[in-house]
């Protein structure tokens, strides 16, 4: 009886391998289904974000509409300058920046006044990317503005975040402490490779910049602003080449306005004053303070061999 009762109450459970296989297959299909919809959701989110205009884009469009008088994008924009109120607003906020290296209101206004009087389209060449770069681009509304920068990586970065800015990098081969020697050599070669009227693209003068894009040498620049490269360090490149290049570009114009406005920033430094005296010339200096010098240069005859007429010269030996 005991053995019989045990056999009757015993239960046997068998797990067939097919049941386990079916459960694993179901889980795989469920995982694939969830993954598919997750990918679709992410793609939809990314596409929607790219197609919705950002707040900054909307603001920029609104400002552009105000400046252009509300004209649509399909309507050609005439070569007109910015309204005076817009210029004054830009100068006001730029001069109140927290950046300790920004220019003063008076300095920026001197350049702004010249750009305002420049017949559009105005050609502006700027040496150096600075705090005021976007300001110069905006003030030269509907004109051509080109920047020259010594740091190729910063130039590429700046152009990437501001694709509307034209920046070209250049390699300076000079040192600030060589200023006296280089200026003396350039003066001695003023009748040859360092002459005031020439195409710098083919120049052998050590102070001439000859590795810029070809079209930079073909433009008749109305305004040139020298605010680079670095000139505050003994081993820095100094601004001898940029000032010399500005002087030659102004003297070598083939058309347009025969006069060129050349501004030199940080005019309190010896190198800037020396090169200004020797290549831009004191008789062309119309405005000056410790930080900004304003010269107005006339184009010269192609056979000219002197940058300046007779005047009291600044000592070069002090920089040698």
Helix fraction, binned, reads 40-55%
Structural class: alpha/beta
Mean pLDDT: 81
The dominant shape is elongated
Characterize the biggest β-sheet: 7 strands, mixed
Rounded to the nearest angstrom, the distance between the terminal CA atoms is 125 Å
Q: Can you tell me the residue ranges where pLDDT is under 50 for at least 5 consecutive residues?
A: 45-79
Quaternary state of this entry equals single chain
Organism: Camelina sativa
Main location: Golgi
InterPro entries: IRX15/GXM/AGM
Protein name: Protein IRREGULAR XYLEM 15
Overall description:
Helix 6 links the parallel strand 1 and strand 2 (144-149). The protein is elongated. The protein contains 11 helices and 7 strands. The longest helix is centred in the N-terminal third of the chain and has 35 residues, at 17-51. With 320 residues, it is α/β, with parallel strands linked by helices. 42% of the residues lie in helices and 12% in strands. A 7-stranded mixed β-sheet has the order 3-2-1-4-5-7-6, with helices on both faces.
